[in-house]
Design brief:
It is built from eleven helices and 14 strands. It is an alpha/beta fold.
Length: 309
């Protein structure tokens, strides 16, 4: 699949010498959903701002649809829809007029049928004549997405799109994103909600301290770095962990009633068979057991901790 956004050796240094981005290389494929994860201050918003031409580039190049964002800014920006973290809307204007006006800013001819479809897709149709000041925070964020889509962009940047909305509305927004992807829109989202990346992303990028630690397919990342935890409930508590089990990395819960064993899902042998045999030899009675697959959140936290070390 062809890259619609290409970033090479991108750097951003502010006055005073602070490096916000340190040599980012990234190719974003057309039609994919890419989730950028990272702690506050990692450089996610800075990266988006530079792609959208809002922040100046210190070094490196960015092309959008083959257009250099510096030399051919207007053509590049015309391909992009941006939904920033902050809610920037005219409170005393109606929903429909706000979206129409945004389309005009990009030099597009009026298209009421398109605007109507966008409002319906975003569940804003019944609010089309309402003043924005009267809308809830979640509805205002939908208006921001409608504004970003008004000029028919091929790429949509969503910077924390579900921040401050409740769980039900967040899941509704996911459905909106799935619908946009089905139409061929490339989506790049930054999020603090790991479940959002797990639910939506084709690929996941992890950024920390201005460096892109990795970009991989979500399934590949979880398969490569994922682990499973086996928790064994004992029929009777034990005061001390047998040495053979401790040597395998098994840990004993404080109450003496549970054993915890973590293993690599990609390994040829998990060691579980030998572990259970050693349990029997030690005279421990197994009451129950369960496994848990490590989540994207576990992987993300581990990567950031490793980078900080």
């Amino acid at each position: 699949m062809a890259a619609i956004v290409s970033i090479e050796n991108l750097r951003k240094t502010y006055d005073g010498g602070f490096e916000a981005l340190k040599g980012i290389d990234l190719a974003i494929e057309e039609g994919e959903v890419l989730a950028l994860l990272g702690p506050n201050g990692a450089g996610k918003t800075t990266l988006i701002s530079m792609i959208c031409g809002i922040s100046t580039i210190t070094a490196g190049t960015i092309t959008v649809g083959g257009h250099d964002v510096v030399r051919d800014f207007r053509a590049a920006r015309g391909l992009i829809g941006l939904v920033p973290q902050e809610l920037h809307v005219e409170g005393f204007e109606s929903v429909v007029n706000t979206v129409r006006f945004t389309r005009g800013l990009f030099g597009k001819r009026p298209d009421d049928a398109l605007i109507d479809r966008i409002l319906k897709d975003l569940a804003l149709w019944e609010k089309r004549d309402a003043k924005i000041i009267a809308l809830s925070g979640g509805m205002k964020r939908r208006v921001m997405i409608a504004k970003a889509l008004a000029h028919e962009p091929r790429i949509l940047f969503l910077d924390e799109p579900t921040a401050g909305v409740d769980v039900a509305l967040r899941r509704e927004m996911w459905e909106v994103m799935r619908g946009l992807k089905a139409l061929g829109v490339t989506i790049i989202l930054t999020t603090h909600y790991i479940e959002e990346a797990e639910a939506m992303a084709d690929r996941v990028g992890v950024i920390n301290k201005g460096e892109l630690l990795l970009v991989e397919k979500r399934e590949t990342l979880m398969r490569r770095m994922g682990q499973k935890t086996l928790t064994i409930d004992l029929g009777e508590p034990v005061a001390e962990l047998p040495s053979a089990l401790a040597a395998r990395g098994v840990t004993l819960a404080d109450d003496g009633r549970q054993l915890v064993y973590t293993y690599d899902t990609a390994a040829e042998q998990t060691g579980i068979t030998d572990l259970l045999a050693e349990l029997r030899e030690a005279g421990l009675h197994l009451a129950d057991l369960q496994t848990r697959q490590s989540s994207l959140e576990d992987i993300f936290v581990g990567l950031v901790k490793e980078d900080a070390a």
